[in-house]
Amino acid sequence: MEKILEIKNLSKSYNGIPALKNVSISVRAGEIHGIVGANGSGKSTLMNIISGNPVIRETGGYQGEIIYRGSRLQVKNCAEIIRLGVGMVHQEFALIPDLTIGENIKLGREETCRFTDRLFGRKYSFIDRRRNNEIASQVLKRLGLDVDVGVKIIDLSTNTKQFVEIAREVARSDLKLLLLDEPTAVLSKSDALKLLEVLVGMSRGGLGILFISHRLEEVQYICDRVTVFRDGEVVSRYKKGEINVTKLAGDMVGHQVYKANAQKRSVKATPVLCFKKFSVKMPGEEIKSLDLTVYEGEILGLTGLSGHGKLALGYGLMGMYPVAGEVIFKGHKLDRMNARTNIMKGIYVLPDDRQALGILPEHSLAENIIFTGDQVKYLFSRNPLGFIDWKGAYGYVEQAVRDFEIKCSSPKQRVKELSGGNLQKVCIARALTVNPQLLFVAEPTRGIDIAAKEKILKMLIDINRSKGTTIVIATSELDELKRVCDRIAVLVKGRVFKILYPDSPDLEFGLALAGEEGANYEGIRQDEELPEGLPEDLCG
Q1: Is residue 46 domain-shared with residue 178, that is, in the same domain?
Q2: Number of domains in the chain
Q3: pLDDT in tens, 483-540
Q4: What per-residue string of b and e applies to 281-294 under the rule 16 or more CB within 10 Å gives b?
C-alpha cells in the first residue's frame, strides 16, 4: 500500500526538555495506525507537528523529516496542512462557540447559492444555509447523532461537541489523512463503538488514519499497526494479530499498574446536598425535575448513557444554564446558582471541558493551580495591598507537581504546552487549593493514561478519607465508579432512575442504564436510618 505519511527521526524539545526523540513512523493508505503512550510521552506533540500547530513554531520548531504523499513537507501552518488533505480531530475542541453546528461543520467549505455564483463569482457569492445544514445533518446522522444543526456550539454538551468536531473532518471530500487525538475520550462506550465502525469504513475506502487513544481495547479492535511511546521515544511496535492490551499497558508505563480500590464501608445518611425537583436546560444533557440527596462524607457516582443528564448537574451548580427547583446545601437553600458564590460556600465544580472552562492557556502552570485559591491561601496576611506570596505559592505548586506527577519543565511553563492528561491534573490540583467541602468532578480521567488514571482515582479516595470531603463523580466509566464510590446514581432521561451500590450485579446496572422497569429507586440501604431530629422536608 502507498505510504501517505512517513516520519523520520523526528525530535522536539520544550525549553530544553525533550518531548520527542528520533521518532520514526509511517501511515499507509487504508490503514489505521495506533499511537499509545502515557501522558507526556509525546503523542500530542507529534500530532501538533504534523497538523502545523503554531505552538511548535513558537517554541523553536522541530528536527527531522516529514514526507507526505512522496514529497518532503516543511510544515508552516495549519492552513497549508488542511489544503493538502490532512484533517485533525483535537483532544481539546477546536470549534467556534458562537457559530452553529452546521456553520462549524462546513466552515471554510460552505455551499454557495448557484445564482449568486454566476452573478458575482463564487468568492463573493451568498452562502446557501439550507444546503449547508442538510449536508451537516447527513454527516452527523452517519455518525449516529440526530440533532438540530442550528444550535450554537456554546449550548452543546461535551459529548455532542465531540461528534461535531469529528463530523467537520468526516464531511471533507479531499481528506487523505485523518489525525485523531483521543476522539472517544468523552464518549460513552456505545457512542464510541459507533464512531469506530465509521472509522473502519473510512479506512477501507483508502483513508489513512493516525489514531491516539488511552482506551487500549479500542486500539486492539480497530488498528492495523500500533506504535508505543514512552518518554518521547518509540519503545515497541505491533502488527494486527500481535496487539494485546496487557502488552501495550506494560510497554506504555514500564511498570505494573495497581488499580485504585476504595475499601467498602457504611456511610451515615446525613444529607449535605439535596436537589428537589431540580431541572437544568443544558442542550443534549437536560435534567428534568430531579430529586437526589448526597450524603456527607460519601463518594457518590453519577452515570448514564450519553445525553441523559449526568454532566448537567455540575453545570447547573455553576449557573451556566437555566435551572429550576431547589438546591439545599448543609441545611440552607442556595439562592442562586453561581460558581464564585458556591466556591465561597464550599462547593467546587470541576467541569469536563477543561480547555474551555478549566484552564488559562496563556498563563503558567503555577498561576493556573492557584488561580482559584490565591485569595484564600497565598496573600501576605500583613500586606494591605493583598499581593500574592509567590514564594509560598511556588512551594505549594511544586509539591502539587510532585504529588500529581505533572510533567513540565517548571511551574512557570505555559499550561497550553502541556499534554492533555497533564492539563487534567492541573485542573484537579487547582480544585484542591480551596479545600472544598463538596467536590463535584466531571469525567476526572478523560484523556488520561492508565497509570495517571489510577493515581487520580486514588487521590480522590485519599482526599475523601483523610479530609472528609464529599465527592460527586460524573462519568460514563462505570468500572471506575464501582471501584471508588459508596453509591452510584443511574440517570435516565434527566432523572434518577435507580441508585445502586458498587457490589450490585452488572446485569442490574445494565438494566438500569437501559431504563428497564423493575429497577426500584433506593436512596439508602435497608439497614440505614436517617439521624433523629432531621427535618423530613430538608431533602424531600
Answers
A1: yes
A2: 4
A3: 999 999 999 999 999 999 999 988 898 888 888 865 444 444 433 443 333 333 445 4
A4: ebbbbbbbebbbbb
